[in-house]
Design brief:
By secondary structure, this protein is an all-alpha fold. The protein is built from 24 helices and no strands.
Length: 539
């Protein structure tokens, strides 16, 4: 077991390209390559076009033969009809060159393509024309390889057990012949040796034979695809389906990238994936293989594919039918859900309309409440202001009354003394003096101004902002008001009546009216705005 694990590790080391990626990720790469195969075919066609041009422009027979040989190699996995045409051109040129070895090579080329086309009688007839005793040493490998390939095709196509046994014996015989003529260090020898070991059932040794190939062939070469395919067949015998699938994928990927149309790996991969239940991918691969085989005119490959195609297509159709039925069921379910969703949407819409109407009503009530709150706030502010004014002026009135009582008492005592002393003239002079009233009025105004400005300290500048700049009133002192300002101070305190203002200030009603009219003519703002702004002074 340890030796077997060591062999697998050696395989990974010797084939780094094969070791990259698991089967599932490689399948995705293969899917992409199949989708791009038109591009690979276009590149192939361009290469073939260049070879044809070189062939037609060749000036001598050896060069023509060399380009015809390249055309044959380019066509033999791409289009068998064109390949056999190239082989016959080679034969004609070889005969003109009178080169027996080139004639044999061309005849074997024709036989190779006939075998791939399934024309077995003509293949044997073509091979029979070759005098094998005159073959060159380097041609024996090709000669035996052709017989080995033809009998392998016949074995795969045989129906009777006796036929299979007979062909199998011939296949084994030609394997031995190939091992005798191949260089033991060549890749062809190791591939054949691997095949021989598989035939004997020595699968682990067969894997070792592949691992000893060494340096990996050029990218996307036919030999690389052949090695990957041999690995797949070896792992199939070992029962390792995962590695078999991985190497079949690598072989198929190489075939697609080199624009090969006659291949086997993709067909076998499709069958393997079908057995795993990957019907969609299997159908895609088997259809691709059939299209390419049809393009290449590879009749035997088409026959091989046709054996698996109906089964895969039937399973694919069955799956499509099941998916169609499921889709129909889903459609019915979606329709039912859509009806439910529509009904729910209608109900939700109706609920939203009710909620919207309720929100509008609530908003309307909220707006009314906000207006009421604003009104209440204004009223509270006015009440608070009124209470403050009342408190201030009640204190002022009490102080004023107490002062007047004290003054009256002092005045009474002074008169009483004068009268008792017989100073009648002095008493008459004291009562006849008008300065007493004037002084009291002046003191009253000073007290009123001081109290008012303590309540509304910014009354003067705020009031002036309502007047034109050139008409603004500037009192003589900061703690006193002018007669006009005193009139509007009482109005700010809530005494709009001119007669009450006149009595309070000891003015005539006409004087108060004149003061009001004078101020109205000096206004910077309208009368309505003036009234509102007057009420807001001091707030």
């Amino acid at each position: 077991m340890k030796k077997f694990i060591l062999l697998i590790l050696l395989s990974i080391a010797l084939f780094p390209v094969f070791a990259n990626g698991n089967a599932d990720s490689l399948l995705q790469v293969l899917d992409k390559a199949i989708a791009q195969r038109t591009q690979f075919s276009d590149k192939k066609e361009q290469h073939l076009k260049e070879l044809k041009q070189a062939f037609h422009h060749s000036g001598n027979l050896p060069d023509k033969f060399r380009y015809a040989d390249k055309l044959f190699d380019a066509y033999k996995h791409y289009n068998l009809d064109s390949a056999i045409a190239a082989a016959r051109t080679k034969l004609s040129l070889a005969q003109q060159l009178q080169d027996r070895q080139l004639v044999f090579q061309s005849q074997m080329n024709i036989a190779e393509i006939m075998g791939k086309m399934g024309i077995y009688k003509e293949t044997f007839d073509s091979m029979a024309k070759i005098d094998k005793s005159k073959l060159g040493k380097d041609q024996w490998g090709y000669y035996y390889h052709l017989y080995h390939s033809i009998y392998t095709l016949l074995f795969n196509n045989a129906l009777l057990d006796d036929e299979k046994k007979q062909y199998n014996a011939l296949i084994s015989h030609y394997k031995d012949s190939l091992l005798q003529v191949y260089d033991a260090q060549s890749i062809a020898y190791k591939l054949t040796y691997n095949d021989k070991l598989l035939e004997k059932g020595d699968y682990r040794q067969a894997l070792l034979a592949l691992q000893q190939i060494g340096r990996q062939p050029d990218e996307d070469s036919a030999q690389k695809a052949s090695i990957a395919y041999r690995f797949a067949k070896t792992y199939e015998k070992l029962g390792d389906a995962a590695e078999q699938k991985r190497f079949l994928t690598l072989a198929a990927l190489t075939d697609i990238r080199r624009a090969a149309k006659s291949y086997v790996a993709l067909r076998e991969l499709a069958v393997l994936l079908y057995k795993e239940g990957q019907v969609d991918r299997a159908y895609s691969y088997i259809r691709c293989a059939m299209e390419d085989a049809s393009f290449a005119r590879a009749r035997f490959r088409m026959l091989e594919i046709s054996e698996a195609l109906p089964i895969i297509v039937a399973s694919y159709d069955k799956k499509m039918e099941e998916e169609k039925n499921n889709l129909f069921n889903y459609l019915i379910l979606i329709s039912i859900l859509s009806v439910i969703l529509l009904a729910s949407s209608i109900l939700i819409y109706q609920q939203l309309k009710r909620i919207s109407a309720t929100k509008k009503l609530v908003k309307s009530k909220n707006d009314e409440l906000m207006e009421i709150n604003v009104t209440l706030r204004d009223l509270n502010a006015k009440l608070s202001e009124s209470d403050h004014v009342k408190e201030t002026y009640i204190g002022y009135v009490f102080n004023l009354c107490s002062s007047y009582i004290n003054k009256l008492e002092s005045y009474r005592v002074n008169l009483h003394k004068k009268l008792r002393a017989g100073q009648v003239q002095e008493a008459l002079a004291a009562t006849g003096d008008t300065n007493l009233v004037s002084n009291e009025v002046r003191d009253f105004f000073q007290n009123f101004d001081a109290v008012f400005l303590s309540i509304y300290p910014r009354f003067i500048p705020d009031f002036n902002r309502l007047l034109k700049p050139e008409e603004q009133i500037q009192p003589k002192a900061d703690d006193c008001l002018t007669p006009e300002l005193r009139v509007f101070a009482l109005m700010r305190m809530g005494i709009p009546d001119s007669s009450r203002i006149a009595n309070f200030l000891h003015y005539s009603p006409q004087t108060v009216y004149n003061y009001k009219r004078k101020i109205m003519n000096k206004l910077e703002v309208g009368k309505g705005e003036f009234k509102l702004k007057m009420e807001q002074i001091g707030r």
